[in-house]
Design brief:
OB fold (Dihydrolipoamide Acetyltransferase, E2P), de novo design (two linked rop proteins), 8 strands, 40% helix, binds zinc ion, alpha+beta
Length: 255
């Protein structure tokens, strides 16, 4: 035993969780200061473990960790928010899997990004309480792109930077946003986008998360259009589709 382990504390959300050895769990955490971290929760699978309840998937907790030779070890956990409704309702949970997988795939380990942590925590809280789950996901996608350096162009042309007018009706996943009519004419692979979808995306990029309830009455086709546009934008960055998208679609279209 080295006996000289260093202890540190951090707030964290459990992004991913898997079994590790006989009774332990491997956790992927998102933290404000240390970014994404892989740690071990010892004895977390024993029902008698006092700490087991605190290391549930998507919980927000205050953790104490001890530095390990390879992976750090959770030595104490205090729940901050368990997002109970999110865990109890499958549509909410399936959206949580989706946003967590998206974040996990697009971020490297140990990249400090406090605004990203705030975005994720606020998104989980909204998925726990909001009525417009798909719009919470669209908000998350747009702002995740922003925080990772791929902010979609919604006010200036993604190609020539000229200010956009309501005449703009093409979206370029490759250029990362709306195109002015002149640039659109030169980009045959740009996607058609309705003025209503263009405005909805602008609203989601500019307004705080709490404002999305104002979009409750957006029609289903319009919501599908914004989803399609953002998926097409994320696909080349992810280089493939996510497993959780299939699950999310299965849950959504079964009801
Ligand atoms: Zn242009």
């Amino acid at each position: 035993m080295a006996g000289r382990e260093r202890l540190y504390r951090t707030e964290a959300v459990i992004l991913r969780r898997s079994d590790f050895g006989e009774a332990d769990r491997l956790l992927t955490l998102l933290t404000p200061r240390y970014g994404k971290l892989r740690v071990i929760a010892k004895g977390a699978r024993k029902t008698t473990s006092r700490r087991a309840g605190h290391v549930e998937l998507f919980n927000r907790a205050e953790l104490q960790l001890a530095t390990g030779r390879n992976l750090d070890i959770v030595t104490d956990a205090q729940n901050i928010d368990a997002y109970k409704r999110l865990h109890a309702e499958l549509p909410r949970l399936s959206y949580a899997y989706y946003v967590a997988e998206l974040l996990d795939k697009l971020t490297g380990d140990a990249e400090e990004n406090p605004p990203l942590y705030t975005l994720f925590v606020n998104t989980l809280a909204a998925l726990d309480s909001a009525t417009t789950l798909d719009l919470v996901a669209r908000y998350f996608e747009l702002h995740l792109l922003n925080l990772l350096g791929y902010r979609p162009n919604l006010f200036n042309c993604a190609s020539c930077q000229s200010p956009l007018t309501e005449a703009a009706d093409r979206w370029s996943p490759a250029s990362g946003g709306m195109l002015c009519p002149l640039c659109a004419a030169r980009e045959p692979h740009a996607l058609p986008i309705s003025l209503a979808a263009f405005k909805a995306l602008r609203f989601l990029q500019r307004e705080p998360l709490a404002a999305i309830e104002q979009l409750q009455r957006l029609s289903e086709p319009l919501r599908r259009e914004t989803e399609h546009i953002l998926r097409a934008t994320l696909r080349p960055i992810l280089e493939r589709d996510l497993k959780s998208v299939e699950f999310l679609d299965a849950v959504r279209f079964a009801s």
